[in-house]
Amino acid sequence: MRRSSRVRSRALRLFPCAAALVATAGLGQLGAPAPRAAALAAPTAVCDGTDAAARRPAGGESGQDPNSVTPARARAMDEDLRAHLAGHVNAHAFDGTTTTIRVYVHVIHSGDTGRLSDGTIAAQIDHLNATYGGQGDGNTATGFGFELAGTDYTDNAGWYKGMTPGSRAERDMKKQLRKGDAGTLNLYTAKLGQSLLGWATFPDAYRSDPVGDGVVLLDASLPGGSATNYDEGSTATHETGHWLGLFHTFQGGCQSPGDYVDDTPSERSPAYGCPEGRHTCSTTVLDPIHNFMDYSYDSCMSQFTPGQVERMANSWAAYRK
Ligand SMILES: [Zn+2]
Fold first, then answer.
1. Span 39-82, pLDDT tens digits
2. What angle do CA 200, 205, 206 make, to 5 degrees?
3. Backbone torsions φ then ψ of 177, nearest 5 degrees
């Protein structure tokens, strides 16, 4: 799941905490007014150690965040992954070959609203190929490529407006539209509720719920869309990371084993905006704000790590191959 910072940045009651954090971290950004302003606007999340729970709207199945899991659930998922890999030849980090994933894009729209063009969809596929292909500052090639297998359009105002994870609309949509098998990526676009940019299913869930498998995206998050700061297509990169078995970089907060990837620094909570120098755990390294599996702006995200590539390769071998 990925959520924009619009709602949280209005939570001004946490502002003193933000100032305290900046002082503690010794960021020394006084000479750079714009970044500092960004850092101060965002830390409603930085300061809140219980952020994952706090961001989950109260009550109801539709309020659950499917991609921020409890430490116990993360541990169980990791054990399941290891069990599935036992006896296989383990899949390791990118060995130079490319696995091409077929992608079906299901556009939900309401009349002309949300009816994405072929060009927008092609740009999104291009962005997936660039980000998974190692382009970008500090990025790692993953060995995964993406190929558009088909696009369909469904004019349904009820599904389009304010879809949320676990809702009846989501279930009905996927039941009617999903295509392919465990290794086929189904991308659905609509106008989402709860300030959500998107959400995804993890690969281990395919066995028990193949119909539910896939990624749901805010239509405005595709390249050139109207979601300010989230309009370059990296929401699809982030959600596809979950679909390939990655947790958020802030999974588990500062507690090891965090996101079950050794080379992503831990962080206490999601980063919003692009808070350079953010440092929320007692470690020797800064928070991974440029990682695709954080919550930063699209312009701030450019990285998968070798450890994440290995986890995606392992998840593919265990669940999707
Ligand atoms: Zn997420």
1. 222 222 222 222 222 222 222 333 457 898 999 999 999 999 99
2. 95
3. -115, -20
Coil vs helix vs strand at 200: strand
pLDDT at 221: 98
Ligand 1 mean position to 291 CA, how many Å? Answer: 12
| Residue 61 is a catalytic residue | no
Residues 6+ apart with CB under 8 A from 160: 108, 109, 110, 113, 114, 190, 191
Q: Which of 170, 232, 239, 267 is catalytic?
A: 239
What is the pLDDT at residue 239? 98
Q: 228 Cβ partners below 8 Å, 6+ apart?
A: none
Q: Residue 32's pLDDT is what?
A: 28
CATH of domain 82-247+302-320: 3.40.390.10
pLDDT at 230: 97
Q: Look up residue 190 and give its DSSP letter.
A: E
Distance 115 CA to ligand 1 centre (A): 25
Count CB atoms within 10 A of the CB of residue 156.
Answer: 16
- Give me the residue spans of the domains in the chain: 82-247+302-320
Question: Closest Cα to residue 271, out of 256, 285, 291, 243?
Answer: 291
Low-confidence ranges of the chain (pLDDT < 50): 7-63
Q: Are strands 2-3 and 144-155 parallel, antiparallel or unpaired?
A: unpaired
Alpha-carbon torsion 17, 18, 20, 21, what sign?
positive
